[in-house]
Amino acid sequence: KTNMKFLVMGLPGSGKTYLAERLQPLLEAAWFNADKVRSMAGDWDFSEEARTRQSLRMKSIADFESSHGRIVICDFVCPTKKTRDIFSADVLIWMDTIEEGRFEDTNALFENPNKVDFHIKEWNDHNHNDIAEAIKKNV
Q1: How confident is the model at residue 1 (pLDDT cuts 50, 70, 90)?
Q2: pTM for the full model?
Q3: E-assigned strands of 76-136?
Q4: d(Cα 133, Cα 109) in Å, to the nearest integer?
């Protein structure tokens, strides 16, 4: 099925970009990395308001691509239930590979998601293949 929105979320340093970069060609998806999108927007504010703004920004980009029949992968911290609800992913992948990230403010506000489609607990060389296979089999 085309036009699915994937969110690869987790703490900074958990492997979001590593996974997304490898998953993208397997799903022939558009891929947007939060740091690159923030850079293009010139927005390096990490207040609660700015995190909401970033989630809206990522959602807008993903919704645009999805509305044009593309599978879209976005990788970003998306640290709270509110920011995840705003993004509204069809498939949620949680990179739960580290206890804490390098930014204390992010660690302090990070809320573990209650329901995920893929819960990744370790870095390895096959997560992306496993996920792509499961997606293709179930779609």
Answers
A1: low
A2: 0.94
A3: 91-95, 118-120
A4: 33
